[in-house]
Amino acid sequence: MLDLDEKLLDYIDRQTELTGFPPSVRDIQIALDIKSTSTVHTHLRRLQQQGKLIKIDGKSRALRVAHHERPEPGTVSSDVIPFLVRVTEGVPLLSPVNCSGSIAFPTPDKSVDLSMLFCLRIRGDDMKNAGLIDGDIVIAQAGGEYVNGSVVSVLINGVPVVKRFYKENGVVLFQSDNGVRPTIGNESMILGKVITSVRYYN
Does this model's pTM top 0.85? Predict the structure, then answer.
């Protein structure tokens, strides 16, 4: 079993590869179920002292795993991912009529079909146990494979939202992480599987 330091290094490495930048201390705390942010800071300082983490000069929270050589600036392309704001019957999901605005997102994994990606902004904190809080942006893949417990984008009351998918005894449930009673639905309501998230700081 990996110890906490190894798990922390692996998580920073994977998130940096996925998003192009390292996770925040709060992201690390939630993802690794660490008791407090001060504990995360303690581990980060120790890993820097051991030379396993390198802090990038001039950036407040930019860390990289020492063994992982990041690409030179400009070598990882950023692709434009549209914001899905509505779903209109009779038109393709990612038609311009359903989208408003976009973000530039680094996509080092070229196996991902970019034409199937869309993003949503999280409203409220009902998915905070999944590491998603108000204002976060999630990237979802239309048609992505999902299993029980997967975080998905789903159409509820005509609005694209983010929930966990469960199927129990043939009944499809869309569950928040805050204990609220789940919505009963069907798999045709699923718009895509969430594959990563983005958080911006002022």
Answer: no
What residue ranges define each of the domains in the chain, with the CATH number in brackets?
Answer: 4-65 (1.10.10.10), 111-198 (2.10.109.10)
Burial class (CB in 10 A: 0-12, 13-18, 19+), 13: middle
Cα three-residue angle 148-81-70, rounded to 5 degrees: 85
Lowest mean pLDDT among 5-9, 17-21, 187-191: 17-21
B/e letters for 158-187, b = 16+ CB within 10 Å, e = fewer, are eebbbbbbeeeeeebbbbbbeeeebbebee
CA 187 to chain centre: 21
Greatest alpha-carbon pair distance for the chain in Å reads 58
Alpha-carbon distance of 74 to 69, in angstroms, equals 14
The phi and psi torsions of 174 (rounded to 5 degrees) equal: -115, 115
Q: What is the pLDDT of residues 116-137, one digit of tens each?
A: 889 998 888 888 887 888 888 8
